[in-house]
Every structure is written in structure tokens, then in C-alpha cells.
Amino acid sequence: MRVLVLGSGGREHAIARALHRDPSVTALHCAPGNPGTAEIADNHTLDPTHPTAVVELAGRLRAGLVVIGPEAPLVAGVADALRAAGIPCFGPDKEAARIEGSKAFAKEVMASAKVPTAAARVCEDADEAAEALDEFGPPYVVKDDGLAAGKGVVVTDDRSAALDHAAACERVVIEDYLDGPEVSLFALCDGQEAVPLMPAQDFKRAYDNDAGPNTGGMGAYTPLPWIPEGLVDEVMATVVQPTVDELRRRETPYVGVLYAGLALTSKGLRVVEFNARFGDPETQVVLDRLATPLGGLLQACAIGGLSPDARLSWHPGAAVTVVIAAENYPASPVKGDVITGLEEAAQVPGAYVLHAGTQRDVEGNLVAAGGRVLNVVGTGPDVAAARIAAYEATAKIRLRGSHHRTDIALQASH
Predict the structure, then answer these.
(1) Which of 168, 288, 303, 334 has its CA 20 to 30 A from that of 198?
(2) What is the DSSP letter of 55?
(3) What are the GO BP annotations of this UniProt entry (predicted)?
């Protein structure tokens, strides 16, 4: 099987790494990829949100499967264009991807499918926003209706800050605050059936103890020793399958990964949000643990042959990933600084490094090229051991001004 992966981040490096380990994958390509994917795949310069260019490249490479990593190509209709050209694609079409592209659409689907979620109101202007804030009370939860790469949500006790965020967006969803820990669960879908991956938890805030602004995610770990038994079955029965069924009823079958962001609240399980792609950085730990070859699974989704009884196999133990972010991330990350120490990090037993926002400069040096620069993955027999490996490797890497959280998976490792 010849596979093309679209995207350039740590998630795509993790996907490419898992595909590289699958013996059925005979050729692996990434577009645009990054210096990490270049070590295991052929990179191609390309705008992954340009449907015609993607179809042309996939045809030229004779790709038997295209895997779409980030959300922007999905919302741009790249999956639609590939399917129209007869090329199998892992990723929902434009209409189904609205489950992430529009918070209001997601709420409407959940209401129709009777999926448990926070009460919410869609607001188009300042007066509606003010009314909704007063209806729900603090802490205020204000979400940009459109795509915001994980940064469109403000949760605050400050009413004026909540109003300011609402004013900065064309359309917002204001909802009830959900208490309790959050869990990410990915389900692979072929439009009809869905199979769950292992739950993970990510850390959205920039600094230790969940301080600072929301980011795309500063670290993640799996498995979650503290989740209630039977949670995955409950999520599949009450959240994932009803959503897949509802989208199929609407004649927009969902093919790809459905990412359910969940809160385990005092009132029970609630959906915080849906995403139409693998979460970043949870993918980095979940795919590390997956023993079932990834290529065959994604291809089964793309061509509609996923078995509902598929029981995936998993490596024992745990994985923890720590995100190394550039100076001044998430506001305006500093780019161009040289990164060193990757060879030393790779020598740490049980650890490896995924590239997220890197590139080569004219002299061939590895430099920072994004906000989240590297993902350091540590593995071990349990969360505590995996955490030690991840931080030992992180300590070997040098990037001027960079920062990372020191408390990823800390509570789960006791």
C-alpha cells in the first residue's frame, strides 16, 4: 500500500512513524511533512489545503490511501476532491467536518442524536452574548464558532473578558461550564462502524498547574489509570455511535477519526467538543501504544470495510509526551533559533523525539519554525516510568528561550 500523509506537525510525524512500522505500507509520502518525517518518508512541497494540488500529487504518487492530519484541509474539501477522483481517503468530507468547523453545527447534531453535552446558546451579537453569559453564570465558557486550532475557547470568571472574546468573534457558542477531569477518545469510523482507540488526556494550558493561556496542547499521556471501568463502552454507545448514525442519516457519512473531547462531570459523561481529526499531542501517545498495524485500519475506514468487532491490540505499559514550545508561545512564537541535543535525547532508553514545528535553515541546521517545536515521547512499564524517560530526554534538548511544562502526567504517576 502506497500512503500519502497530509500535514507538517507532530501529529503527522506520529502518524507517519506508525505507518512506517506497518509492513503492508510499501511507500510512504508526506506533504509537506517536516525534517522528522523526512527520515522515514519522502516529503513533498505542497499546500495541503489546495484540493487540486493534493489530488494531482496523490495521483502522481499512485497513492492507495491519503491520510489527512490537520483540520484545515478537511474544511477546505480536500477529502471530497480525493474521493471524487477515486482515491481512498482517511478523513471526513467538508460537510461532515463541520462537526469541528462549526460548534453550532456540532451542538445541533448532538441534540438530534441525544448525545450528552453542555447546555449552550449560539450568539450572533453582543446583546445575545451578554444575555447568555448571565443565563449560565460564571465560570463563563465562550467558544468561537469557527476553526481556531484549539485556541478559540475562553473560560473565565471575568465577565468583561468573556464579552471581549465574544466581540472578537463573528459568532460564538456560549455554554454551561463542565466540571470534572477531561478525557480524549478517538474512534476510527468508516461511515457506519466505529472502533475506539485508547483514551488519553492532554494538557491545554501553557504553564504548570494549568496556568496561562489555552494552547494547542502541551503534553499528553495514556493509559489513564483513574478512569471508571466501562467508560470506553459508554462513550461508544452514548456518544460516538449515535453521532456516526446521525451523520449517516443526514447523508454525510463520517469517514475518518472522530475525536470526542469529554468531561467526566459530577452529573455524568458530557461532550466538551468534537474534532474531525486526530488530536495533537494525544495522537503521539495513543499511536505509540497501538500494536495493530495502522495502515490496514485506516484503509478499512477509507474504503468502508471496518469490522465492528475489530479488537485492537495494544503494547503493555504507558506513554507520555512533553511538548517543547518556542519562546513566547502561544502568543507570537519566536522562530529561527537552532535546536541541538536531539541525538542525546534519542539515546535515552524508552524515549524518542517527534518533530512538530521544525525546518532546516540554508546551512542545514535544525531550527524552530512553529509554536510547538518538538514532542518528546517517553515510554515505560507504567506512567511514572514513561514520565521519567520523557523528561530525561527533554532535558537533553537545547532551544534558546523554549519552555515546557514540568507536570505532564504527574498526578497519574503516583
Answers:
(1) 303
(2) H
(3) 'de novo' IMP biosynthetic process; purine nucleobase biosynthetic process
Looking at 145-236, which runs of residues are DSSP E strands? 153-156, 172-175, 182-190, 194-196, 201-202, 205-207, 211-214, 219-222
Tens-digit pLDDT profile for residues 17-58 = 999 999 999 999 999 999 999 999 999 999 999 999 999 999
Statement to judge: residues 245 and 203 lie in one domain: yes
d(CA 285, CA 215) in angstroms, rounded, equals: 18
Do 351 and 409 lie in one domain? The reply is yes
pLDDT exceeds 60 at position 149: no
Looking at the fold, whether 239 and 260 belong to one and the same domain comes out as: yes
pLDDT digits (tens, 9 = 90+) for 357-408: 999 999 999 999 999 999 999 999 999 999 999 999 999 999 999 999 999 9
106 contacts 274 by C-beta, under 8 angstroms? yes
Pairing of strands 219-222, 318-325: antiparallel
Alpha-carbon distances of 202 from 184, 280, 288, rounded to whole Å: 7, 8, 15
Q: How far apart are CA 146 and CA 36, in angstroms?
A: 30
What is the domain count for the chain? 4
User: Is 328 found in the same domain as 292?
Assistant: no
Element containing residue 82 per DSSP (H, E): helix 78-84
For residue 241, give the C-alpha cell.
Answer: 455511535
200 shares its domain with 290: yes
Cis peptide before 253 (omega within 30 of 0): no
Model confidence over 290-319: pLDDT tens digits?
Answer: 999 999 999 999 999 998 788 899 999 999
Which range of residues forms the domain containing residue 351? 318-413
Q: Which pLDDT band, with edges at 50, 70 and 90, does 410 fall under?
A: very high
Local confidence band at 336 (pLDDT 50, 70, 90 cut-offs): very high
